[in-house]
Amino acid sequence: MSTYIKNKYQINKEDISYEIYYENMEEAKDIIFKDLKNKKGIYLLYNNLDDSFYIGSGINLYIRLNTYYYPSRLADNRLISKTILNVGHSNLSLFILELYDINDSINIIEREQYNINMYLPNLNILQFASSSKDFKHSPETKVLLSEYAKNRIFTQETRDKLSKMFTKENNPFFGKEHSPDTKLIMSLKKQGINNPMFNKPKSQEFMAYMRSFKSGGNNINAKSVFVYDANTLILLNVFETKTACREKYSMTKATLNKYIKSGLSKDGKIFKEGK
Question: Which of 29, 96, 204, 252 is 20 to 30 A from 212, alpha carbon to alpha carbon?
Answer without folding.
Answer: 252
